[in-house]
User: Fold these one by one.
Assistant:
Number 1:
Amino acid sequence: MTTTKPAALPANPRFSSGPCAKPPTWSLEALSDAPVGRSHRAAIGKKKLKEAIDLTRDVLGVPADYRIGIVPASDTGAVEMALWSLLGARPVEMLAWESFGEGWVTDVVKQLKLDAEIKKAPYGQIVDFATVDFDKDVVFTWNGTTSGVRLPSGDAIPADRAGLTICDATSAAFAQDLAWDKLDVVTFSWQKVLGGEGGHGVLILSPRAVERLESYTPAWPLPKIFRLTSKGKLIEGIFVGETINTPSMLCVEDYIFALNWAKSVGGFAGLQARADANAQAIFDFCATRDWIDNLAEDAATRSNTSVCLKFTNPAIKDGAAFAKGVAKRLEAEGAALDAASYRDAPAGLRVWCGATVETADVAAMLPWLEWAYQAELAAQA
């Protein structure tokens, strides 16, 4: 065992799972064209918001007949809009395998008071989609941000389902293949894989979701901030840049920059390849060490964005304290910032590997991870 510090640090040690690292070419100059001090309802404001929507469709490959809207309150706001506006027409099935999925269960069961069927899997595992009844409305996260466990594909979702699929894809969008024909509602926040600023969400609706909105009225009152219809018809303006409330034009400009950067690295395929390379560097590291492993038990479900790790050495006396100690050492040395696991997740580390992270920085961080592990192990002796 050696506690000699590595020679080189990552050029960018930011491995936070949200807000995530900015694109490598980003600078404050990227925001110089933002129409600050102007109304978002002015022609320039609407143009910018429409540009953001159109670029989102282009980069993600969203079908032409799906609506894309920019909504308030980050991914949480987008999910809540879908839950409150769409659920109640059919029986509901809730799927959860980490804390954010658990949060949607709480909202549906305790706030909306729906008698939903709940299927859960522990951290490191995923719900068996073969057991899910897709004639019900089904709510799930595609990628568990706090568990590092993702749905490997949409193959288990039937094309002829009677219910809607409502998918929180905030840490999957722009890095993982989303099966658009199997998804009726998709939500995300641009603070994740594209390294945007927090506070804004994106809500994507299939024609089936729009039909539900226009044919069903929930039994509960809807706050203005959740309303997607007026007089029984979809408010189309939301999906061309006429937002429900006031967006930050600085944040919109930042998102436009990130989307154009995404196109410059090969669009969705390029983004996915970058995330895959980042995650694979960590997987390879773990494969040659007996003291650390991926929290995801099945390699097919391992996330390529929110890579969650667990320490496996039985000599570790207090897992939670040990993991926090390693994370503190990494941060103190400037080797990895914000790499601690989520507060509700099992003790360990969480390293963001989305496309805005450089593989060279992941590679430079890993020797520091080994050093921090060894130093913390020596300190507990």
Note: Residues 194 and 258 are 6 Å apart (CA to CA).
Number 2:
Amino acid sequence: MRLHRILLACGMALSVNLALAAEVEVLHYWTSGGEAKSAAELKKIISGKGHTWKDFAVAGGGGDNAMTVLKSRVVSGNPPAAAQIKGPAIQEWAQEGVLANLDEVAKAEKWDTLLPGVVANVMKYKGAYVAAPVNVHRVNWVWANPEVLKKAGVAAMPTSYDEFFAAADKIKKAGFIAVAHGGQNWQDFTTFESVVLGVGGAKFYQDALVKLDPKAIDSATMKKSFETFRKIKGYTDSAAPGRDWNLATAMVMQGKAGFQFMGDWAKGEFIAAGKKPGKDFLCAAAPGTANAFTFNVDSFAMFKLKDAGAQQAQAALAAAIMSPDFQEVFNLNKGSIPVRLNMSMAKFDDCAKLSSKDFVATAKNGGLVPSVAHGMAIAPATEGAIKDLVSQFWNDDKISVDDGVKRLLAAARAKP
């Protein structure tokens, strides 16, 4: 009789586990080398929990293509369990009433104590978690090929724009491309926001590019930023327009170019190619930005699902994303750093250790600011308008610095 009850209990537990095991469909746009390896790690963890990962990868467009597909799925009443969404776009989806409340998972996993407030707020809507952060990318990096620098007679990574331009002149004179760049609006703005941060500092950056304060935009500091930005353009090559970011990274990797302004996903490409930091490539905060940190946090927003098993699988995904094991292995592959504040960085390289140290320090001193270029700071429509005008300025030397500032001011005033 006792054996019968034990068998019955085991059977009930098994049936419950089987009922709760479910498919979790995840929409993302991690398709390049380092990114694809990172997505595979999350799939492995979810599979280990008994759930089935359904990959919904949409390549291209820096996520724009993925968002187009996502909108059609949500409108048709068939959303994925999770989708790679970030920044103010999370709140826009939440306003539509289609995102799930993750507070139960967040409370159990103590997310409020593990995340800097400025990051946690991005993941919430009306005080409730609706998205899980995967990592932190630092955007304000400059990458370099040490052999190119050595051949050009550049002794160290530049810490100011005066030093940067002096180094760029030497690299150009030595017969190399000084700055590897891909002419797409988000790449142009990645460089522009690092310039604004380096020229004006974190408070000016916040006032001008996040708060869109007219006084900050229409200022001598912004004019100097535009002048510096245009000067950088002179060190890029004529084939830059339309080039993908990873191909620009490859130019540095292959010794064709000296520098690249790009977030630390570029490091993921170096690592995937077997390159060693400090030996095969160098990293440094963009000139003038050592005490600041522009963050780009990849995250997954969770959509409302009707099936109880699917909801359990979704909760398991959210918990897995913030787990120490995943945070470590994912970010080792991706080139980014863990979003958890209490993580050991023992297995990470010197670039990541510097990034983590600065992430913690700037979270306390006010230097931790959201990246506009990567959808972390302002409404998508305004962001798009500002990116476009900055790219127009980059591509057309006939647009004066004063006109560039006026156009930025007009786009900011038109904010929704």
Note: The longest strand covers residues 23-28.
Number 3:
Amino acid sequence: MMNKRLILKKRPSGFPDSDTWLLEEQPIPELKEGEVLIQQHYVSLDPAMRGWMNEGKSYIEPIRINDVMRAGAIGKVIKVNNHSSFKVGDCLTGFGGVQQYCVTNGDNWHKVDEALAPMPMYLGTLGMTGMTAYFGIIEVGKIKKGDVVLISGAAGAVGSIVGQIAKIKECTVIGIAGGKEKCNYLVNDLGFDDAIDYKSEKVILALKEKCPKGIDVFFDNVGGEILDAALAHIRRHARIVICGAISQYNNTTRIKGPSNYLSLLVNRATMQGMVVFDYANRYHEAAKDISRWIQQGQLKSKEDIYEGIENFQETYNRLFSGDKHGKLVLKVI
């Protein structure tokens, strides 16, 4: 049996090009004692993948050259060699990488119930995406009823869930997104109170109009000029959650930091980075709440699914072009 897998061939400078990865086909090795073979159905595409390709200190080790491209994945066990926890037919999710099959001893793989939700949802709303949104806005953002919550990248996988959780917690929610269609989606489909189209509006001016009393919580997925604009409009004791900075990931020059950072001092505000792995022992809490909200119709889950491992790069590019809606997933089988 052969396995198609995507290998990291070089560390990109700026935006990854066609030479960054190599799609190769290799025989699947025989299972050792205590290993399982997972046929992966879907892999997750996330902005964090860009940082994982860089060499240097981060919250996780960089992908090594000639290793399989790191990615969250979900699939089914099709072969077992005396494993204590998993059997053929189990649906598992973990970091299987961008490949069709994964051989593993099962460490850090988790069994999920496909009867409760479709596979792609376990890579999004019920996976790392949902966990990031939940702990980012509740634990780091410390939202409370009546807060004014601003979200950048609000139509993306994490931002769209953050906004819905904030509405469930009875906050006023304003999302920043690119284009009229996405802004309408935030307000009309997800129940945001308002939206700012950064492509057609000056964000710093729009914030004066839409957040006249200031911002209590800013959940940032974008960085750069949008972070700077938000800092100029925060209220006393505001909380800024740094989840990502997608506007800066492909820079070939120095990352642009905020010039309005003294607003943190004036407003006695806090700005804190957030990495979802820090909450691993509490994922079950988030999954329980998120599942209940979905069942009650309070939270919508949207997956944007593309097909073919051969189309990885084209699909990956959508993370940065904005040509997607919700959680980006690639079907590899």
Note: The radius of gyration is 20 Å.
